[in-house]
Amino acid sequence: MKNVLVTGGAGYIGSHACKALKQAGFTPVTYDSLVTGWEDAVKFGPFEKGDLLDRARLDAVFAQYKPVAVMHFAALSQVGESMKIPALYWKNNVMGSLNLIEATAEAGVTNFVFSSTCATYGEHDNVVLNEMTEQLPINAYGASKRAVEDILDNFGAAHGMNSVIFRYFNVAGGDPEGEVGEHHRPETHLIPIMLEAIDGKRPALTIFGTDYDTPDGTCIRDYVHVCDLVDAHVLGLQWLLDGKGSRVFNLGTGDGFSVREVIDQSRAVTNKSVPYEEGPRRAGDCTKLVSGSTRAEAELGWMPTRSTMKQMIEDAWNWHRTGHYDK
Length: 327
Ligand code: UFG
Known about the structure:
The protein is of the alpha/beta class. The chain has two domains: 2-172 and 223-251, NAD(P)-binding Rossmann-like Domain (Rossmann fold), CATH 3.40.50.720; 190-221 and 254-322, UDP-galactose 4-epimerase, domain 1 (Alpha-Beta Complex), CATH 3.90.25.10. The chain is 39% helix and 19% strand. It is built from ten helices and 13 strands. The strands form three sheets. Strands 3-2-1-4-5-6-10 form a seven-stranded parallel beta sheet, with helices on both faces. Strands 7, 9, 11 and 13 form a four-stranded mixed beta sheet that branches. A two-stranded parallel sheet has the order 8-12. Strand 1, helix 1 (12-23) and strand 2 (26-32) form a beta-alpha-beta unit. Helix 1 crosses helix 7, helix 4 (86-106) runs parallel beside helix 5 (140-159) and helix 6 packs across helix 8. The structure holds uridine-5'-diphosphate-4-deoxy-4-fluoro-alpha-D-galactose. Uridine-5'-diphosphate-4-deoxy-4-fluoro-alpha-D-galactose binds next to helix 6 and strand 8.
């Protein structure tokens, strides 16, 4: 069996990736500090508790499992928090990643899959973003991810590190079999917050800003189903193992949904009213982030199958109703 070291494997996207890796015949070895992850989400391979900043622990895990590749999900990922406490993002996301990348190179592992983000692009008026779009992040989260992309580029040139970098748009939905799902504490993402409001677990959703330059005044995002997203990671891993070299791919669907449109669709899927109020803008939010994923489709053969808004909300709603949020 081929081991893949999955940092953040106890988190939302990482746990879904572990399931997909196992189904593809790999053994996912989760490395996670459990600061934001959940041990009960580690179901598909061994678990090693550790922090990215703990180099000795990383070296020991590399020596024990001899992975063929690293998939690096572990990161702080809240845009709003990154504007309030940027040091957290530079320390965890940049210094932590540098430590991991250095340990990876010194262990002789040259295949690295990295979770980056469309937040690295920043504001580009009414443009469908592609991988060549200039990266001008407007928040510390996006800046921290762009910095890690640069580190990987440098390690590629200096040490032969091959990386597949995925720039995600907004990830939503959950495992259709309900084995894992989205669970953040505190929750900050639109769809789970909305489902909590629908279910009476919070008084209301607050719409962050209704004066954006969009048709209904609310921000527009491109939502992609977590299962489609992790399928792309398995394809990206295979790309590296086939020796195809470093490449960047956007992962989105090309369809933009405003906050109000997501509310309307949630009402339709759950058949319940959505309590909401209108509030001010959240610092760091871009007006519109929409991607084409033609490169991932053309080069990786990626074919999203669950990324309709209806399906994403349905899967998230089914997971929500399992009660994992109530633990
Ligand atoms: N929103 C609200 N109210 C809320 C939460 C969110 O109106 O309570 C709005 C936001 O302002 C934004 C949209 O819903 O316009 C989506 O917000 P999320 O917090 O769900 O997602 P973000 O777009 O801020 O960020 C997410 C991930 C990042 C990733 C980014 C890419 O958290 O890691 O998507 O767009 F980089």
